[in-house]
């Protein structure tokens, strides 16, 4: 029988994204099947007893393991270069499982200030209720990270590049700081995906994903995952298996189909984003473009060194404050006005009044979220159409 030898070390990312993880069933199917089943049966009472006792591997119940979900987990683990992956019901569930699996009351987290809004609520409001404290520091300032660490710090958590200003942190240097203090470093790799950045290779211990974004890439389903070493991932698996935030087989199948085109899509996203960023930077109605792929970005060299691409999220400061920003957004006819990103469809938002609306005026100033800032998550439509869509509003302001 013809079987592909699985060789995760030798295959390129594009090959792993298409092939890794699928072991054909007896039906010899070509495409990954959806195992839509909540439970699994045993050949005998004795086999059931052995499986429940953990003496024999195998599926028991889809909250624990499911073959379609396992293919997704193995494929993403191969792409990130991790020993093991645990899939979750959402990106937030991936972060929750990490905290529940690795931390206890009295432990501390140090996190970058510019985080996904729900991550801040999860850390400060919900983990706070259980005696876990979080301190926030400026993403790129390693001295601040260092100074915030105490003997109780167990987890360093960063999103790099940041949303929407494209700030980055030196992952290798941050991993070194974490390990010197016996803490784990978790990187939320949602904005770049393993196609553009592999944090584990740079020394991070855990990679967090919202599969909802670029892993799917077409805005169809909510899911998440954590990738890392067996020791930590076994703890996270225990949380998902017991507490229940597992990925559904149907969503795992959607993400598998998304992953097949990950490399291709990310290259196209990056190419359009850079071209659009350069064009916007030259437009008279634009005060500034924040994108780590631009030479004008203060951390361009670091981004170049640790990433193989710059992603597709642009922060664009429009002259004329909120009024100017809103008029550009409202003049679009093609882009979707929505807070989501990581989609083939380009999205446009005004962070100060949506994703970052919870921040006080002082916090907005400190985080660089000005009233004139718009965020564009560049999709896969024709570049000329995207330019024309923005030019309609921008030309009126110039
Ligand atoms: C969307 C997002 C999350 C949360 O993921 P969900 O799938 O929406 O739960 C976490 N981190 C980042 C950077 C995100 O963009």
From TrEMBL:
Reaction catalysed by this enzyme: O-succinyl-L-homoserine + hydrogen sulfide = L-homocysteine + succinate
Q: Which Pfam family name is an example for this entry? A: Cys_Met_Meta_PP
PROSITE patterns recorded for this chain? CYS_MET_METAB_PP
Q: In which pathway does it act?
A: Amino-acid biosynthesis; L-methionine biosynthesis via de novo pathway; L-homocysteine from O-succinyl-L-homoserine: step 1/1
Residues bearing the modification N6-(pyridoxal phosphate)lysine: 213
Arranged from A to Z, the UniProt key words for this protein are: Amino-acid biosynthesis, Methionine biosynthesis, Pyridoxal phosphate, Transferase
Q: Which InterPro entries match?
A: Cys/Met-Metab_PyrdxlP-dep_enz (IPR000277), Cys_met_metab_PP (IPR054542), O-succ-hSer_sulfhydrylase (IPR006234), PyrdxlP-dep_Trfase (IPR015424), PyrdxlP-dep_Trfase_major (IPR015421), PyrdxlP-dep_Trfase_small (IPR015422)
List, separated by semicolons, the cofactors it needs: pyridoxal 5'-phosphate
CDD domains given for it?
Answer: CGS_like
Tell me the first and last residues of the signal peptide. Answer: none
Report the EC number(s), separated by commas if there are several: 2.5.1.-
Q: What does it do?
A: Catalyzes the formation of L-homocysteine from O-succinyl-L-homoserine (OSHS) and hydrogen sulfide.
Q: Which family does it belong to?
A: Belongs to the trans-sulfuration enzymes family. MetZ subfamily.
Record text on subunit structure and interactions = Homotetramer.
UniProt name for this protein: O-succinylhomoserine sulfhydrylase
What's the name of its gene? Answer: metZ
